[in-house]
Amino acid sequence: MGKERKYARIEGPLPGPKTAELLRRREAAVAGGVGNNFPLFVEKASGALLTDVDGNVFLDFAGAIGTMNAGHCPPAVVQAVQRQAERFLHTCFHVGMYEPYVELAEKLATLAPGSFAKKAVLLNSGAEAVENAVKIARKYTGKPGIVSFTRGFHGRTLLGMSLTSKVRPYKFQMGPFAPATYKAPYPYPYYRPETMSEEDYARFCLDQFADFLLTEAAPEELAAVIMEPVQGEGGFIVPPKLFVQGVYELCRQHGILFIADEIQTGFGRTGAMFASTHFGIEPDLITLSKSLAAGLPISAVVGRADIMDAPNPGEIGGTYGGSPLGCVAALAVIDQMERENLCERAGQIGLRIREHFDKLQKQYPILGDVRGLGAMCAVEFTDPSSGKPAAAFAANLVRSFYNKGVILLTAGVHGNVIRFLTPLVITDEQLEEGLDIISESLAERYA
């Protein structure tokens, strides 16, 4: 059961009896392809805390895979949803329009980077935003090709899988995939040759991309390049600024649209409302979702007005796209983020996490890399004797955190990266308790 803590509290062996019964029912009724990271059934959630059906309390350092930047059940968001639910739940914006859709589109156009007129379309999920961004780009340019990057993740739909660069569990035996999609190499600074400076490495990676446009995909046939400013599922990899700017400029030179996939990096996670601003770029299109509405399903594509207007009426959208509940939740989230300055808070959280692991790195050679931008942080575990990814060690460590009351997830194509997506409303006390538990588990596992 471990030592007593102020926040994390494990009442007995996991999973508890109520959870075990729900697991039995889940096994009988839910498709096997629906994965679960932990045997965890949540009864309630608030801020950075999850309480399961057996009364165990967990510190949530995963944030529902980055959807909880504003925390679980923010009071203003709950109230906004309750008020909207009393008016109407759904009218379909294509049939009966409503002001919150327009208001959110206006707000996103104002917030998104870019010194040009912008418009937005609201949808349901991140993958849906990616699909529509590609449709818009192809319609505007009249060209078919779409370039994504190695280790990138863009969803589980057909096109999303095609643009994603991880076979298992996302693509195995799911093909054939969408045509006219290409994958360019993406930097991995952790593996930069020791003989190469950071600037030289960035230029090397940019040269690789320029060569890619000669050897793999002709610029004249490319509608867009889609890039995560910081790779998420790929391992929280922060690329060199010079590389991102260079790709962006090459797109400009060749008339290729630049799509920033900010589904995970958006809404304060990296210390700015959108990560693109860290790199000094103004994407033509931006895809958004996850923390936009504190867990309610909504997504968006925001971009240059002339590009967004390329599709004809009826060619983009959907029955539930930009639901009234999602719109009012998103507006309340954005208000909270601005009012509480959660972007600045993300910087403080990320700094503390990296400081903590920088110290542990000196103690544990298996801790190969500590990295991140804002509160989008990760640690990568590498076998110090072989130099190979220590995936089993990372997986066992994450399970140990769960047994002690901290929820964390792995990432990376090898599964040897542990990523941090704490709600940005987490208190200093909660953050420190979680880091203490992590240190305790690491010491036990490395002994």
The strand count comes to 15
- Structural class by helix and strand composition: alpha/beta
Instruction: Please identify which CATH superfamily of the largest domain we are dealing with.
Output: Type I PLP-dependent aspartate aminotransferase-like (Major domain)
Give the % helix: 25-40%
Main sheet strand line-up? 4-10-9-8-7-5-6
Outline of the structure:
This protein is of the alpha/beta class. The chain has helices at 17-29, 63-66, 75-87, 99-111, 126-141, 158-163, 198-215, 241-254, 305-308, 324-340, 342-363, 391-404, 428-446; strands at residues 42-46, 49-52, 57-60, 118-123, 145-149, 181-184, 222-227, 257-261, 285-288, 299-304, 367-373, 376-381, 406-407, 409-411, 417-420.
Which tags fit this structure?
globular, 447 residues, alpha/beta, Aspartate Aminotransferase, domain 1, seven-stranded mixed β-sheet
Write a structural description:
This is (S)-3-amino-2-methylpropionate transaminase. GO terms for molecular function: 4-aminobutyrate:2-oxoglutarate transaminase activity. Strand 7, helix 8 and strand 8 form a beta-alpha-beta unit. It is built from 13 helices and 15 strands. The mean pLDDT is 96. The radius of gyration is 22 Å and the shape is globular. It is of the alpha/beta class and 447 residues long. It folds into two domains: 155 residues, Aspartate Aminotransferase, domain 1, CATH 3.90.1150.10; 266 residues, Type I PLP-dependent aspartate aminotransferase-like (Major domain) (Aspartate Aminotransferase, domain 2, 3-Layer(aba) Sandwich), CATH 3.40.640.
Write the topology of this structure.
Layout (H helix, E strand, L loop, with lengths): L16 H13 L12 E5 L2 E4 L4 E4 L2 H4 L8 H13 L11 H13 L6 E6 L2 H16 L3 E5 L8 H6 L17 E4 L13 H18 L6 E6 L13 H14 L2 E5 L23 E4 L10 E6 H4 L15 H17 L1 H22 L3 E7 L2 E6 L9 H14 L1 E2 L1 E3 L5 E4 L7 H19 L1
Parallel strand pairs: 3-13, 5-6, 5-7, 7-8, 8-9
Antiparallel strand pairs: 1-2, 2-3, 4-10, 9-10, 11-12, 12-15, 14-15
Helix pairs in contact: 3-10, 4-10, 7-8, 11-13, 12-13
